[in-house]
């Protein structure tokens, strides 16, 4: 190949390279132009959206008069203008109730209040006339108030009944009485009673009086007094006392009854006859020298060691303490009259559990 041909080929290659470079620049410029045009169109669309379609409350400058973050104030078609609300709230669920002396009650349970404008009307309950410790029928007043001051009232009665009392009978072995507890509950109660008798050191070779004394002090010391209990079943009352170590006089009575029965000490249930002030439950026990009163429920003040006390002692205490232990003397087995206990001399723990 001649020198002239080589020069001609080189020129052609140079010209071709230049054409390729121009083509690449043209493609790159078109891409940049399209990208810039796309960004401009996006920006224009965004501005149009903000100007004409953006919802109130979006992130505009709150000082720009064109935009606002406050939704226009509208009024529900069924609502009334302020000052024109004259409709009172509606109270539903108010019903008459019946309970037993010593029980508690939730006055607002199942009671609701609605209003056509106020979403949360106020409900007040006046139960100041109710005395849960005194049998009778009492009135409870419910008052509902809405935001405009409209009020509605409703009333219901609460009937407080005295505990049911029956002729006292000597304690039957668990499972042989008419208590509504199930067989499983009775079995569980006997198990717990046996467990606690072992803990307090009650043994078969002890006298009935020694067994009863340890039981009286365990119940009196180990349970904490509270104001409520399920009085429908003495078996369940005993279980509640054993499981929680808490309860009222019914639980003290039931726990002692279960322990004494498990220890083989005969008992008789005693129920206070005048419940106009309060109800109360205790036992008679016979440890071999006749029936004596046995009440482990703690009381404020002295002279309350109710372990093997006579009618004379109990009546004197009851008269001095608002008839705390008034009972129908003719409804129970004849009681022993010999005084064997000083009611002011309750022994210390170490004297009972040496």
Strand content: 15-25%
Strand order of the largest sheet: 2-6-5-4
CATH fold-level assignment of the largest domain: C8orf32 fold
Mean pLDDT: 84
Query: In terms of structural class, how would the helical and strand content be classed?
Result: alpha+beta
Major β-sheet annotation = 4 strands, mixed
Count structural domains: 3
Q: Please estimate the helix content.
A: 25-40%
Low-confidence stretches: 57-81, 165-170
CATH class of the largest domain: Alpha Beta
Which geometry do the CA atoms define?
elongated
Q: Whole-Å distance between the termini?
A: 133 Å
Q: Whole-number radius of gyration?
A: 44 Å
Separate helix tally: 7
Give the name of the CATH architecture of the largest domain: Roll
Spell the H/E element sequence. Answer: HEEEEEEHHEHEHEEEEHH
How many beta strands in the DSSP annotation?
A: 12
How are the SSEs ordered, and which strands pair?
Blueprint: H1 3-52, E1 90-92, E2 97-100, E3 112-114, E4 122-126, E5 136-145, E6 151-161, H2 183-199, H3 208-222, E7 224-225, H4 234-244, E8 246-247, H5 249-263, E9 267-271, E10 281-286, E11 291-294, E12 307-309, H6 311-320, H7 349-352
Helix pairs in contact: 2-4, 2-5, 3-5, 4-5
């Amino acid at each position: 190949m001649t020198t002239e041909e080589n020069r001609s080929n080189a020129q052609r290659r140079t010209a071709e390279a230049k054409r390729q470079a121009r083509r690449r620049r043209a493609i790159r410029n078109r891409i940049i132009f399209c990208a810039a045009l796309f960004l401009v169109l996006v920006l224009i669309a965004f501005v149009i959206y903000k100007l004409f379609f953006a919802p109130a409350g979006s992130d505009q400058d709150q000082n720009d008069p064109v935009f606002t973050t406050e939704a226009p104030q509208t009024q529900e078609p069924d609502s009334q203008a302020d000052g024109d609300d004259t409709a009172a709230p509606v109270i539903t669920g108010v019903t008459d109730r019946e309970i037993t002396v010593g029980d508690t009650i939730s006055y607002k349970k199942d009671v609701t209040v609605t209003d056509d404008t106020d979403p949360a009307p106020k409900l007040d309950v006046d139960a100041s006339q109710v005395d849960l410790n005194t049998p009778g029928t009492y009135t409870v007043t419910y008052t509902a108030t809405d935001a405009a001051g409209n009020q509605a009232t409703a009333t219901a009665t609460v009937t407080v009944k005295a505990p049911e009392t029956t002729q006292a009978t000597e304690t039957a072995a668990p499972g042989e009485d008419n208590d509504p507890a199930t067989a499983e509950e009775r079995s569980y109660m006997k198990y717990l009673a046996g467990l606690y008798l072992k803990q307090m050191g009650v043994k078969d070779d002890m006298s009935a009086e020694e067994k009863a004394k340890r039981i009286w002090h365990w119940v009196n010391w180990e349970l904490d007094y509270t104001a409520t209990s399920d009085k429908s079943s003495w078996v369940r009352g005993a279980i509640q006392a054993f499981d929680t170590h808490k309860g009222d006089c019914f639980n003290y009575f039931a726990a002692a009854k279960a322990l004494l029965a498990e220890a083989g000490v005969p008992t008789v249930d005693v129920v206070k006859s005048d419940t106009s002030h309060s109800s109360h439950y205790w036992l008679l026990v016979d440890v071999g020298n006749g029936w004596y009163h046995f009440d482990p429920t703690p009381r404020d003040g002295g002279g309350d060691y109710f372990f093997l006390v006579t009618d004379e002692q109990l009546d004197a205490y009851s008269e001095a303490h608002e008839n705390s232990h008034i009972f129908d003397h003719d409804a129970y087995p004849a009681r022993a009259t010999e005084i064997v206990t000083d009611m002011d001399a309750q022994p210390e723990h170490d004297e009972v559990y040496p």
